[in-house]
Fold:
Amino acid sequence: MTRIRHGFFGLKIENPCLIRAIGVPPLSEDVRHTTVLHLIQNFQKTALNLGFFYSITTRPSRIMLHQLFQSSLNESDFNELLQLTFTEHERAMMLERWRIFEAFDRGCSQREVAREVPCSIVTATRGAKVYRENKEGVKKHLERWRG
Structure:
């Protein structure tokens, strides 16, 4: 069983297999530490390779979030929930991502998306990858939005 403990200097991971998969060089044989930065840099690769996800992605947590957002009966309640749940920067990033999806759905190139949204070419490229890998789901939600 993998145990991850939060500490002042980062995370302590108590599973040698997971440590090797993440690519963290051991500090000693019995105690291995990694910085949060190193873990974040390798998290996506590790999550995909090992099926390892942090506790927030557990089914009960997702159900709770679904129920919270579903309970918003009007736009005012929904906006209040967004403000309570996400920072201003996170809300702006979500809107940016959906503007990127919408532009790709209209057939814009990455450079055109970067100019139109506006965002960096790197952000447009990341959005293009997510759009390509999830085209059906993105189109389904864009059709709901477009009415």
